[in-house]
Amino acid sequence: MPEIKVSCHLITWRDEFKLGLKEASSLGYRACETFTHIALGYENEVARFQQLLNEHSFVLSALYGGGRFTDERQRQEIIDYNEKVARFLTLNGSDIIVFGAKGPRSKDGTTLDELKTAAKTINEAAKRCADLGVRACVHPHLGTEIQDENELDAIMELTDPDYVFLCPDTAHLTKAGMDPVQIIERYRDRVKYVHLKDVTPEEVDIEKFPILSGNEALPIFCELGLGNVDMKPVIACLKNIGYDGWVTVEIDKSTSTPQNSLAVCRDYVQEVLSLSIRQANHY
């Protein structure tokens, strides 16, 4: 029976990478994704980066690459950048790079010609990563050139399935009007990495966010289990397709503290989704 592996994103700590490692590790997490600019800050100190991970019993699940794929003028720069990220990943035992699209997004969406341009860049960059043993996973993202279902479908159709894979993000898919379960099922052979993320409901039960003082605006994304994304069918679908890769818990902004938010997510993952955040053998 394939075992889904759990990672956490240190985005909640912003640029406080070392603090994020320390606090996430204290919660029991044993794998992480972090900002790429932080990781590449150790490009010439790979041993030091590995030491920091090892000190907290962590492995690196992935890094977030990508670019403005629809801009043909940036093609070579995007390819070179993602190849650099992929090289860093291989030095740190990871084989996943997330290809995040960039904004701003046109009010009319992305045209087919633009998507064809994007697909060409994605194909070439993904092939370069594959040559290094790293799988490139496209991440549809709100406010970018790859947001809506028709754009995702076009990119998946126009790219090479041998090199280009998918990173479904439960929150971004949901906010864009998609059903994460349907998307995972549709691209079951290409799903190689997953972001587990919840969406803050429009009608908020303020008692679930006790740290708020006053009328601060809630972030669009929230801790797992407090939002309106039903994660249980997502995990059931992943198990059904035999997925044995990473699911990465992600919350962009905490309404309390990063450690508290990741504790809420940990409890939800373990108690509701019945997934262990401690895997003895990651790779």
TrEMBL record:
It comes from the Bacteria. GO terms for molecular function: isomerase activity. Residues 22-255 form the Xylose isomerase-like TIM barrel domain. InterPro entries: IolE/XylAMocC-like (IPR050312), Xyl_isomerase-like_sf (IPR036237), Xyl_isomerase-like_TIM-brl (IPR013022). Keywords: Isomerase. Gene3D superfamilies: Divalent-metal-dependent TIM barrel enzymes. PANTHER family: HYDROXYPYRUVATE ISOMERASE (PTHR12110), INOSOSE DEHYDRATASE (PTHR12110:SF41). This is Xylose isomerase. It comes from Alicyclobacillus ferrooxydans.
